[in-house]
Amino acid sequence: MSPLPPAGPTRRLALYTLVVCVLAVAAAVVSFVQGSLLGIVWVLLAGLSSNMTWYYVRRDKLRRAAGPDVSG
Questions:
Q1: How many domains does one find in the chain?
Q2: Could you tell me if 24 and 39 are in contact, meaning their C-beta atoms sit under 8 angstroms apart?
Q3: Degrees (nearest 5) of the Cα angle 16, 21, 27?
């Protein structure tokens, strides 16, 4: 049996924002290595998606702690 609960919409959103964060960090590194200041935009996007990831993870954790009867 899996130790994690089934993936709900909040967990999927957290995973998607984590993927965006990792890709934005990689794009920022590549941009800065090539000497482009466009990497600043990628860093800002990485920060935003990182905050979104933490928000969705925390929201999912609080929802699971509240009990199965809380939805929505």
A1: 1
A2: no
A3: 125
Determine, yes or no, domain membership for 4.
no
pLDDT for position 1:
45
41 within a domain of the structure (yes/no) = yes
Calculate the dihedral angle through the C-alpha atoms of 57, 61, 64, 65, rounding to the nearest 10 degrees: -170
Does the residue 24 lie in any domain? yes
pLDDT, mean of each 10-residue run, the chain (72 residues) = 63 93 97 96 97 93 78 58
5 closest CA partner among 65, 70, 72:
65
The residue segments making up the domain with residue 16 are 10-61
